[in-house]
Amino acid sequence: LLAGFVLMFSRPFEIGDWVEIGDEEGFVTDITIMNTHMRNFDGEYVVVPNDLVANQAITNRSREGRLRIHMEVGIGYDDDPDEASDIAEEVLGDVGVIANNPQPYAIPSGFGDSAILLDLRFWIDPPTPQARWRSKALVVERIQERFADAGISIPYPQRTVSYPPEKAAADETVERVERADGNGDGRRRDGPL
């Protein structure tokens, strides 16, 4: 009951806001003294007791009127990161659901196992789940197309497996077997022949 009063006075969210409370994410449909009611993106009705709401982190994605999206894309180590960043920023500027203020940007941010990583950051306005999903899907599709046209590769993780194992490791295994049976012929003998 006390948690319900605290929520009523602190107002971290309002009915209609897109919020994330602990593991639950959706739109607030009702706030009572005892519970917060939400509808998640699967269309399910979720009731969260206010004492849990008061004891968890609350992310209100609607409060600022816009939402920043963060994505990463990897390019090959032989590709030019500046050229890839310029192409990615051009793509971000052409996607209609992405806000132009502040400007979207793409910068090289690190070395991955198989790629140089580009950090893509952009804003959507207004912040809705549909706009978030649509913007991410469009960015992936268009960057992949533009990188392919420019000859910039998007590498996938690679592993090198060699077989048979090194000869030294095989010899060492045989030597251990010979020592273990004490006969040198690899056969185990239990008692006299």
Could you explain the architecture of this structure?
By secondary structure, this protein is an alpha+beta fold. It contains five helices and eight strands, in the order H-E-E-E-E-H-E-E-H-E-E-H-H. A five-stranded antiparallel beta sheet has the order 4-3-2-1-5. A three-stranded antiparallel beta sheet has the order 6-8-7. A hairpin with a 4-residue loop joins strand 7 (105-111) and strand 8. The protein starts with a helix and ends in a 12-residue tail after the last helix. The model has no long low-confidence stretch (mean pLDDT 79).
Derived structural class:
alpha+beta
Q: In whole angstroms, how far apart are the ends?
A: 85 Å
Annotation field: number of helices: 5
Average residue-wise pLDDT:
79
- The parts where pLDDT drops under 50 for at least 5 residues are none
Helix content: 25-40%
Q: How many DSSP-defined strands?
A: 8
Kindly report the spatial arrangement of strands forming the biggest sheet: 4-3-2-1-5
User: How do the SSEs run, as a string of H and E?
Assistant: HEEEEHEEHEEHH
Spatial extent as radius of gyration: 29 Å
